[in-house]
Write a structure and sequence with these properties.
Helices cover 44% and strands 20% of the residues. The protein is built from 6 helices and 6 strands. The protein has a 6-stranded mixed beta sheet with strand order 1-4-3-2-5-6. Helix 1 crosses helix 3 and helix 2 packs parallel to helix 5.
Length: 158
């Protein structure tokens, strides 16, 4: 119980110290998606979501909270599948309300049959899904993740 309380306090402190501004949305196409899913210097946690997806909206705050705890080692990237026309009316107000500070991209490409395999050959197109990549490893999660599952997955990459 003490360890859990200590972890909670540390996460709260780390989140409170996050001075990054609220995220803005950058629209990308297939080329931007290809670049995003490539390994980088840090572990990348790439979550596909939309404002109209209830399970996505439910899990996003823990992604943000955990991501702010691992700023030095993890790039948390949210890729919205909302329509581009809804950036200012739905996506950005949502980011502000939920205080999302991680990188937010919006995939502006109607050809899902072409870009889904870029992410994972076995993805059926349903969201939420998460891809975690590092220089040595790649793991695709075709489901919503609990906070504990996400933290465990990230730790396997660090």
């Amino acid at each position: 119980m003490n360890k859990l309380l200590t972890l909670f306090v540390l996460l709260t402190i780390c989140t409170a110290c996050d001075n990054r501004p609220i995220a803005t949305v950058t629209a990308i196409g297939q080329d931007g998606l290809r670049e995003t899913v490539l390994p980088g210097d840090k572990v990348k946690v790439i979550n596909f979501w939309a404002t109209w997806c209830a399970p996505c909206v439910e899990e996003l705050p823990y992604f943000e909270s955990i991501g702010s705890s691992y700023l030095e080692d993890v790039d948390m990237i949210f890729i919205s599948l909302d329509e581009k026309k809804n950036i200012q009316t739905a996506v950005e107000p949502f980011l502000k309300k939920k205080e999302i500070k991680s990188t937010v991209l919006l995939l502006d490409d109607p050809y899902a049959a072409e870009w889904i395999p870029i992410v994972d050959q076995h993805w059926d197109g349903a969201i939420p899904v998460t891809l975690i990549v590092s220089k040595n490893k790649k793991q695709f999660y075709n489901k919503a993740l609990s906070k504990a599952d996400l933290e465990k997955a990230i730790k396997e990459f660090l």
